[in-house]
Design a protein that fits this description.
The chain is an alpha/beta fold. The chain has a domain of 102 residues. It contains twelve helices and twelve strands. An eight-stranded mixed sheet has the order 6-7-8-3-9-10-12-11, with helices on both faces. Helix 4 packs across helix 6 and helix 10 crosses helix 12.
């Protein structure tokens, strides 16, 4: 993908998804969860993937990591350094799999409470790097120090129950880094943490991508957090990418009504409001998407064609957006919106979108 200034497409692409679709088998049916997704991340770049629960963010990451449930079907191309992971046989896929590290939202759900930290970190080093137990232990201590855990020689002997959630998340990051990946998938890696610990994890990811040249896919529901750390932000709704631009451009001038709604729903620190604006209606997954634009039942700017046609991604300032009215911008949409309740929603969304800087 290339925008008007090319700012949303990395030059040195490490990971690229091209028209990737993922479907899951539910009973006797095969239902879509990710639809025709294109995105790319270069070395040393953090790309955000933002959206409500059910939008397909985690399934996109699991598609990349080959961590889908049995019966799942994937089409398109997942390219790692130009090589299509989906076209590989199982043996080749196992060989390249260590190049993709993944950090999950809740470390306690993915770390065995009966294993010491040393056991978690040394297993991958011994299997994938061929290190001896002693060599793996030395390397594990170095990794704990790298991710900012103090007294790593002592911590390595501890069990998960002896550590805080923030420390366990750092252990997970250390484990993901242990086999020197080229890509790091951070799936809501800061959501379950307090604000101070969250800030520490964000700083850690930012430092690691710069020092190691990692291509990071940072999955979150928080647009403000994505803006703080990401080079580019991909907004996802009902399994599709609906806007791709830099975080600053999205905050200053969102071009998709869903992005406008997400920004409007954020509370402001410099003023008080009796009631925050909301995106009317219920979030949906790709499984439940209606015909046409999946967002049209909730959109205050809907056109007749939105109900029957899927909008293409069109070039806008510094990126792309999937909307028939993407080139109008928030201010023009607000001015041209229809009267009544839809106009009130449009005005609230527009005003909040303009004030988020």
């Amino acid at each position: 993908m290339t925008g008007s200034d090319g700012s949303h497409a990395p030059r040195d692409v490490t990971l690229a998804l091209k028209r990737v679709s993922t479907s899951l088998r539910i009973g006797t049916q095969v239902r879509p969860v990710v639809v025709q997704v294109d995105l790319a991340a270069g070395a040393g770049e953090i790309v955000g993937l933002v959206g409500e629960s059910g939008s397909g963010k985690s399934m996109t990451a699991r598609t990349i990591a080959d961590a889908l449930p049995p019966g799942a079907a994937v089409s398109g191309e997942v390219l790692l350094h130009g090589e299509n992971l989906l076209a590989m046989n199982r043996r080749r896929r196992r060989e390249v799999q260590p190049s993709i590290g993944m950090v999950f939202q809740d470390p306690r759900a993915f770390i065995d409470p009966l294993w010491r930290v040393e056991d978690h970190l040394t297993e991958g080093l011994r299997v994938h790097k061929g290190l001896s137990r002693a060599e793996a232990r030395v390397r594990a201590i170095e990794l704990l120090d790298t991710v900012g855990i103090d007294q790593p020689e002592r911590r390595i002997h501890q069990y998960p129950g002896e550590m805080s959630g923030g420390m366990l998340q750092r252990v997970m990051i250390a484990g993901a880094l242990s086999v020197e990946p080229a890509v790091l998938l951070a799936d809501e890696a800061t959501t379950a943490l307090d604000v101070t610990t969250q800030a520490g994890i964000v700083r850690l990811l930012d430092r690691l991508r710069r020092e190691r040249g990692l291509a990071v896919l940072f999955i979150t529901h928080d647009l403000a957090l994505a803006n703080a750390i990401c080079d580019r932000v991909c907004v996802m709704y009902a399994g599709r990418i609906v806007e791709v631009r830099s975080g600053r451009r999205i905050f200053d001038d969102p071009r998709h009504p869903y992005t406008m709604g997400l920004l409007a729903a954020r509370p402001k620190l410099d003023s008080r409001s009796r009631r925050l604006p909301v995106i009317h209606g219920t979030p949906i997954s790709a499984m439940d998407a209606p015909s046409g634009c999946a967002f049209h039942p909730r959109c205050p700017y809907v056109l007749p064609e939105c109900r029957s046609e899927i909008p293409p991604l069109v070039a806008v300032d510094g990126g792309v957006a999937r909307c028939f009215r993407a080139k109008e911008g928030a201010a023009r949409l607000s001015a041209s919106s229809q009267v009544g309740s839809q106009a009130n929603v449009a005005l609230a969304v527009s005003e909040e979108g303009k004030e988020c800087t």
